[in-house]
Amino acid sequence: MNYNDSSVETGRRHYYSSSQGPFHNANNIFMFYGGGDRGLIVESIIRSIRSDESLIHVHGEPGSGKTLLSLVISDRMKNRYNTIRYDVPDISESLLLRHLLIELCPQKADLISAEDAQAGASREAISAALIALINQLNDSNANRIRKPYVLLVDSHAQMDQQTLHIIEQLSAVKVSGRTIMHCVVFNREKQKSGISHLNPQDSLPPNHYHLRRLTLAEINEYLRHHMLLFDFNRRDLFTREMSYFIADRSEGVFRAINKLARNAFTIANLEAADKVSMSHLLMAGLPPRAEPSYESSFLARHRAGVIALMGSCVVASAAAAVFLMR
After folding, report:
1. Residue 23 class from Cβ within 10 Å (0-12 exposed, 13-18 middle, 19+ buried)?
2. From 96, 221, 270, 307, which residue has the greatest number of CB atoms within 10 Å?
3. 37-210 CATH fold
C-alpha cells in the first residue's frame, strides 16, 4: 500500500469539505495540539490543582483555544475531581450562582429563578444562594461529596468584580484543610493586530497563564499534526509555501487557521480537485466582498425634482419648436 498517495476518491473528497472534515472539529480533545506552550500550560494547571491551588486564571484573545483547553483539563481531571463547566455566553453573579445551585444542590435551585438570574437577583437572594452553596461544600458528613470540585468558567462575556468575588469565596472553602472547589477562570482578552514577539507570561502574576499566538514553525507543525491525526496518508498535504501563507493571513490565531484551511478544502471540493493547493488557499484568503452601500444616490434623493425638471425641459422644447414653426 502506498502511504504517500495523496489522491482521494470522490466519496472521500466530499467528506473532506463536510462538517466532519479536517479543521471542522475545533473542540475535539483528541485533536488537541500541545505546541505553543498549550501542553505545558495544561500540565502546570493540573499540577497546581493537585497541589491544592484554589484559583487559576487563563488569559487569551478570541480564537486562541481557551475552550479546547478547558475541555482537555476537564477530561484530564474527571477521574479524581468532579468537574463543572460554565460555558454560557453571558455571565453574572446571578447566572453563575443558579448554575452552581443546579449542579450542587438542585433542591435549592429555586433560591434564584431562571427569570431572576437573567434580570439580576436581589442581594438577599444572592446571599442566600451563596450560603447554601458554601454549606453544601462544607457538608462532608452526608457522604454527598466524595471528590473535590473543579469549576471551569469559560464565558464569552467579560466577568465583573462581583462575579469574581463569588468565585473567590467559593474557592476559599476548605474541608479538612483541603480546598473543596478549585476554580479555573478563562479571561477573554481583546483582539490584537500583528504577532507579538514578546512573551506576556513574564508580566503575569503566579497562577496566571497566557495563550499566545503560534509562530511560523508552530503553524507548520500544527497543520501536519492535525492532518496526521485526521488522515495519516495526507499528513504532508500542506507545503512550506502554504504554511507561510496561512501564517501570514491568520497571524497565528487558531480560529483563523482553521477557518482558512476549511475554506480551502471547500473550494478544492467545488473544483473536484484531489487535494488542496496553493491556488485554493489564495482564493480562501481573499478579503471578503465589500458590503454594498445603501446610501441613496443624488438622483434617488432628488427624484421628484429631476422628473419635474425633465418635464419642464420637454415642455420648453415643444414650445420653442412651435414658436419657430410660425
Report:
1. buried
2. 96
3. Rossmann fold (3.40.50)
d(CA 258, CA 23): 5
Instruction: Map grid coordinates 495523496 to a residue.
Output: 6
Could you tell me the residue ranges of all domains in the chain?
10-19+214-284, 37-210, 296-326
Distance, C-alpha 181 to centroid of its chain? 25
Can you name the residues that pair with 210 across neighbouring β-strands? Answer: 59
Q: Is 143 exposed, middle or buried (0-12, 13-18, 19+ CB in 10 A)?
A: exposed
Return d(Cα 169, Cα 181) in angstroms, integer.
Answer: 10
pLDDT at site 1 = 43
Domain at 10-19+214-284: CATH code = 1.10.8
Query: What contacts 279, CB < 8 A, 6 or more positions away?
Result: none
pLDDT of residue 3: 47
**What pLDDT score was predicted for residue 325?**
65
Three-class SS state of 185? strand
CB 109 within 8 A of CB 102: yes
* DSSP 8-state class, residue 108: G
What span, in angstroms and rounded, lies between the C-alpha atoms of 85 and 174?
21
- Tracing cell 482558512 back to the chain, one arrives at 260
Three-state SS sequence of 2-49? CCCCCCCCHHHHHHHCCCCCCCCCCCCHHHCCCCCCHHHHHHHHHHHH
Number of Cβ within 10 Å of residue 118's Cβ equals 13
Segments of the chain with pLDDT less than 70: 1-19, 140-146, 192-202, 288-311, 314-316, 318-326
Distance, CA of 299 to CA of 311 (rounded, Å): 15
Q: CA–CA separation, 177 vs 52, rounded Å?
A: 10
Tally the residues of the chain.
326
Of 129, 142, 121, 80, the residue nearest 100 (C-alpha): 129
Neighbours of 305 (CB within 10 A): 10
User: Is the torsion defined by CA of 24, 29, 30, 33 positive or negative?
Assistant: positive
Q: pTM for the whole thing?
A: 0.80
